[in-house]
Amino acid sequence: MMADEKNTKNVKDTIEYFDTFLKLNEDTVWMESATGTDVKSAFKLASFLEKFYHSLEPHNRLLSFERIICGWWKSRGRTNPVDISVFEESCDLMLIAFLNNPKARDEIVLLAINEYLKLCSKTRLEELLDTLLTEGISYRILFLALSSLKNNGGKQIDLEVVLTSVWCKKIECGNKHIVQKQVSELLNDNKYIETLMKILCMKDELGEKNNVKLVILETVLTRVNSWEETFWCVLLNNVDQAVLRNVCTIFSDLLSALLSFIVYISKDVSCACRCGPDERTSYQWIAKSKTSVVSGQEFETIVKLLTSLYQSRSRTRVHIRQWLTDLKNGPFCTIWEDIEAVCES
Predict the structure, then answer these.
(1) More confident residue, 214 or 132
(2) Helix or strand or coil: residue 287?
(3) pLDDT exceeding 70 applies to what percent of the chain?
(4) pTM reported for the whole predicted model
């Protein structure tokens, strides 16, 4: 093959690579059933195009190549013009396509993020996430991306830190209603409830996070005060007890809501006491029926949380002690005596 013919073939092949990339990026249905091989091939192509683009820059050949490729696209009926500069960050474009595809499976999105990290720096991914956050990236995708960064030795960025930063900016810009909506959405997803609770526990010496915390607290209190019976159980099953203890210690309204919930469910629970060989009394909580709001095991978890709050040696202890004293002087006092005994043990 003559040199000119070979060069012509190389140019044609390269143009077709660009065309293939655009098709993959514009029609992302293939991502819904993509395999690991498909993902690797897509990023291999994206990486090649980036390198090719940068190889043209030092020799001022970008404009001439752009004329050639635009002419080729025009001859094939592509009506929407493409600025060749977008290929400077082809890997970013490919990753964004995966991140923005709601039908792409989590494992495929994670694979795409990891393939990106093999080809690009962790700093570059962090900068891309910063950009996407301002454009409203989904929390599912943000969570996956931050997990990948941690697993690959990137910045130890926690989801609560990122969300707090974004929400602070939104509230400053007068978009509190957007934050309220997003907090409500996250509160409906068990994966993110602990994240919201951790935001409530974040240190904030300058008070910069107060507005965000207030939105979260108001939303949580609305749920717990609406007597949605299962919500406390959701909290207890999805939030680390140390986090819940801190939240209830910091926010007295939430502690009061917890105590009211315990009173409400106590009517469905009985206690069996046993004295062991060491003369220590053990307490077993038993649900009175299958229709009880909580099981005996769930009530035991609640009592453990209450005990950790009681033993905190703070104003919280005083609050709980007075609450127990009042209940012991009322009807059904036995169960409150048992709970107090557990708290004091």
Answers:
(1) 214
(2) strand
(3) 86
(4) 0.68
Where helices occur in the chain by DSSP H, the ranges are 3-26, 36-56, 62-75, 90-99, 106-119, 122-134, 139-151, 159-172, 176-187, 190-201, 210-225, 231-238, 241-250, 252-266, 296-310, 315-328, 333-344
Of 61-75, 252-266, 330-344, give the range with the top mean pLDDT: 252-266
Q: In this structure, are residues 249 and 312 in contact, taking their beta carbons and an 8 Å threshold? A: yes
Round the average pLDDT of the chain to a whole number and report it. 83
Q: Which of 178, 164, 113 is nearest to 141 (CA)?
A: 113
Cα gap 145→161, rounded to integer Å: 14
**Residue 59 DSSP class:** G
Reported as a single tens digit per residue, the pLDDT across 152-182 is 555 555 678 778 877 888 888 888 988 898 8
Nearest to 246 by CA among 325, 294, 300, 314: 314
Q: b/e map of 242-274 (b: 16 or more CB within 10 Å)?
A: ebbbbbbbebeebbbbbbebbeebbebbbbeee
Nearest-angstrom CA–CA distance, 336 and 38? 62
The token pair at 267 is 């009517």
Handedness of CA 269, 250, 218, 168 (dihedral sign): negative
The half-sphere exposure of 187 on its side-chain side, counting CA atoms within 13 A, is 20
What confidence score (pLDDT) does residue 99 get?
86
